[in-house]
Amino acid sequence: MQNVISNEVYTKKKRLFFLDNLKIFLTILVIVHHVGQAYGHTGGFWEYKSSLHENINALGYFFAVNAGFFMGLFFMISGYFVPGSYDKKGRSWFVKDRLIRLGIPALFVFFTIQPAEMYFYNVNYVANKPSGFFSYYFTRYLGFGKDMSFGHLWFAENLLFFTLVYVLFRVIIPKFRIKSDNNINILSFIFITGLSIALISLVVRIWYPIDKWIGVFFIIQSEVAHLPQYVILFVVGIISYRKNLFLKLGNKTGYFCIVIAVIMAMIVHLHFLIPSVIINFIFDKWAIYESFMAVFICWGLIFFFRQFLNHTSKFVSKIAETSFAAYIFHFPIVLAVQFSLDKVNIYGAVGKFFTVSIISIIATFLLSYLIRKIPYVNRVI
């Protein structure tokens, strides 16, 4: 029987470095994912178009696997930290802190970064070009046109909403507690999670296919197709904290998750080696396949990072502190690098993709680190 330290005791003795390192990995994956949108098949919108028409067909499958889990894992990790933070800070201070750390960045992107990016797109790729930035800003962007959005800070906006719903739940049912002393079969819990996401997603995607974005309650920018996954994994994170599941996850279950995750991801990437009848079935029932792939990848990564990357250094800790800032500022940096290298041939599309990815990752974390040095900024991000 493994000895398991409680969350409270563990975090007092040692920070959960594996979660810091996992957030760094996910942030880098987000950057690379967005770099790839200029050079691969994606149903999503991107503000830059390669003038050399560089294209990598395989990136479409890279996008499919990534989109299937990485933002869900962000919500899961975020949910994990919610109960402890609420218990420590109390309702009022917790809500104030979340409004500052999630609301301010979302509004900042909404009023500054997003309109600048969309102005860039309109100037370069739209026939009806704006006469100037301020004209565009006040008449087209703030004129309630289709350009107005929170951009990639939809994540912060949704996370803030989920968190406020959690607070409301605690207020309405103050005595409700998830008992930490009751044992739970983690593998069964993982299967139930995957099944729940799959069944709800199947229904939701009848009306809301992948990449269809709407304003939930007219203001919460959401891709509804993945919303069941985000909500459920956020709740899974909360349960995982109360039940100490991230630390209780045993070797047998952890390695099983890794193996299943790798197999399911590789089937997508190496689809050309799989009988067409199987591949066609997978993509026809993608909501089911993606849901189970997502939960196995999420738990597999949590186990892998806990087992092998639960340590840090001064350099890595600085990067970890910068992760959220990097998420906020990576978008315009990626666009700037792509546009700067637009007419440069770097060993074709693959060379361009890797070059832009590396430059964007380094530039994003470096610039984000410097931005956090500005007085009071690090109190927000």
Radius of gyration: 21 Å
The number of strands is: 2
Q: Determine the N-to-C terminus distance.
A: 40 Å
Q: What sequence of helices (H) and strands (E) makes up the elements?
A: HHHHHHHEEHHHHHHH
Explain the overall architecture:
The protein is mainly α. The chain has one domain. Helix content is about 70%, strand content about 0%. The protein contains 14 helices and two strands, in the order H-H-H-H-H-H-H-E-E-H-H-H-H-H-H-H. The chain has helices spanning about 5-15, 15-35, 60-90, 90-125, 135-140, 155-170, 185-205, 225-245, 245-250, 250-270, 275-285, 285-310, 315-340, 350-370; strands at about 215, 220-225. Strands 1-2 form a two-stranded antiparallel sheet. The protein is globular, with a radius of gyration of 21 Å. The two termini are about 40 Å apart.
Can you describe this structure in just a few lines?
With 381 residues, the protein is mainly alpha-helical.
Helices and strands in order, then pairings?
Elements: H1 7-13, H2 17-36, H3 59-89, H4 91-125, H5 133-141, H6 154-172, H7 186-207, E1 213-216, E2 220-223, H8 227-243, H9 245-248, H10 251-269, H11 276-284, H12 286-308, H13 314-340, H14 348-371
Antiparallel strand pairs: 1-2
